[in-house]
């Protein structure tokens, strides 16, 4: 609305208004600049490194199976079964007690029980002696064995045992082992019987022995 002509505006009022206007014009840029300066600066985007890892896997081919012997071919490749000459034949066990075996003469009452050096010997071969004489028992072992083992001695219950007895292992007529013992003694015997067909156990008394010559635990290996 236009002022009346006769209205007088004080100079101080005009000067104050002008000062306010000028101040506003000057202040606005400063506030703007301050606001811009105080604002956090946007961080420049950092480059992102992309790493691609390459892993090489080497697959080895599976080993070929060992060739197996074909039917009828032995492990030694000679076309026949493998021969293990060091072991017992498949037809027999690794060892066999002779207790109860029938002799060549067909006597089956020679096996019995006795005591030697205070130890009970069951299933032993017993030769009955009467003073100075020899006794023997022969078996067919068929060339299937390598070793004979046993324990020998005089029966503790012998009626008279002032002398001694010699025990001999004979194979096909050849002496393979021997041992002489007296009453109260026991001795281990071992004989190589490889290739032997007939095995003979011989006991010979010296001076007067009235009792049993005992072959305990006879075993073929």
Notable characteristics:
mainly beta, Jelly Rolls, 7-stranded antiparallel sheet, 4-stranded antiparallel sheet, disordered N terminus
Structure notes:
This protein has a domain at 96-220: NPCBM/NEW2 domain (Jelly Rolls). It is mostly beta strands. It has one helix and eleven strands. A hairpin with a 2-residue loop joins β2 (111-116) and β3. Residues 1-44, 47-59 and 69-90 have low confidence and may be disordered. The termini are far apart. It is 13% helix and 37% strand. Strands 1, 2, 3, 5, 6, 9 and 11 form a seven-stranded antiparallel sheet that branches. Strands 4-10-7-8 form a four-stranded antiparallel sheet, with no helix packed on it.
Summarize the model shown.
The chain has one helix spanning 11-38, and strands at residues 96-97, 111-116, 119-130, 134-140, 147-154, 160-161, 164-171, 174-182, 186-192, 198-206, 209-220. By secondary structure, it is mostly beta strands.
